[in-house]
Amino acid sequence: MKNVLVTGGAGYIGSHTVVSLVEQGFYPVVVDDLRSSSSLILEGLSTLVKDGYTFHREDVCDLDSMTRLFQEYRFDAVIHFAAYKSVGDSCEEPLKYYHNNLLGLINILGLCRDFCIPKFVFSSSCTVYGEPDEKQVYEHTPKRLPESPYGFTKWMGEQIIEDLHRNVVPFQTLCLRYFNPIGAHPSGMIGELPKGIPNNLLPYITQTATGELSSLTIFGDDYPTPDGTCIRDYVHVCDVADAHVQSLFFSDPNPLCFFNIGTGCGSSVLEMVRLFEQVSGKTLPYTIGKRRKGDITEIFANVNASKNLLGWSAKRTVEDAIRDAWNWEQRRNKTHD
Ligand code: UD1
Question: Of the residues 131, 219, 291, 300, which should be mutated to test ligand 1's pocket, given the most ligand atoms within 8 Å of the CB?
Answer without folding.
Answer: 219
